[in-house]
Amino acid sequence: MRLLLSCVCCCALVSVASAQQQWVTVKGQVVFPANKPIPKPAALKVEVDKKECLAKGAVLDESILVNPKNRGIKNVVVYLRPNNPNLKADFAANQIHPADAKRKPEEVVIDQPCCAFVKRVTVARVGDTIVVKNPAPIAHNFFWDTANNGTHNPTIAKQTDWTMPNPLVKETTPIQYKCTIHPWMAGYVRIFDHPYYAITDEDGKFEIKNAPVGNFQIVYWHENGVRGGAKGRAGEAIQIAGAGATMEMKPVDFDVSPK
């Protein structure tokens, strides 16, 4: 009986803490520095399957995509961290929005219709499954080598799909994927064990929904590095305020040029 009452009390405390926590939608934009010329995607050197790969025109280097109209940078992964210098620190249970408990694992699709990965940068959650599509008239392969999510190198025949055999588990570092048949093809995936992440769109804009009110860290990751260098891995201080509203951040400069 005492054990039962103890469990009931614990559940009640968690419910009260969750109810007291307040939530905000965080919006922002990541832009290329105004004092630097906007990089233009160059044509990549295609030496394999030229007929098929160049059927729709040149294959462009999409490692840096900057919108010339507003300098917004596409494919920057933006995510929150606890206000803790320990890179392995987790969010407290009451800092995760209750609606997240209803989230179901998803199939995260990576396509390669014309000798380039779409999406080049992918975000996923623990429990999701990677599905790699190959609608092209030629074979591709999908190679990745990770600490926690195995090593895979399947050849994917033309107009077929391949599904990763196991759901994704936590990986704190970015994972690069490649097609070794067509060596210019590359992309990245970031895997999160919480819901507070986003990827910038064509205008460099992002949105993180249901973020908890309080003091946290925010990280800006691009395949060419982290904003702030090595120190930036732990994030930059952010105070999330304005319960129930939308918090609009000022545009953030990020020089994503290769270092």
Written description of the protein model:
Keywords: Signal. InterPro entries: Cupredoxin (IPR008972). This is Rhamnogalacturonan lyase domain-containing protein. By secondary structure, the protein is mainly β. The chain has helices spanning 2-20, 50-53, and strands at 23-31, 77-82, 107-110, 121-125, 129-134, 140-141, 144-145, 151-152, 155-156, 160-163, 171-178, 186-192, 197-199, 205-212, 214-222, 225-226, 236-240, 246-248, 252-253. The chain has 2 helices and 19 strands. The protein folds into 2 domains: 21-98 and 195-259, Sandwich (Immunoglobulin-like); 104-194, Sandwich (Immunoglobulin-like). Helices cover 9% and strands 34% of the residues. The strands form 6 sheets. Strands 2, 13, 15, 16 and 17 form a 5-stranded antiparallel β-sheet that branches.
Question: What secondary-structure arrangement, pairings included, does this model have?
Answer:
Layout: H1 2-20, E1 23-31, H2 50-53, E2 77-82, E3 107-110, E4 121-125, E5 129-134, E6 140-141, E7 144-145, E8 151-152, E9 155-156, E10 160-163, E11 171-178, E12 186-192, E13 197-199, E14 205-212, E15 214-222, E16 225-226, E17 236-240, E18 246-248, E19 252-253
Parallel strand pairs: 1-18, 1-19, 3-5, 4-12
Antiparallel strand pairs: 1-14, 2-13, 2-15, 5-10, 6-9, 7-8, 11-12, 15-16, 15-17
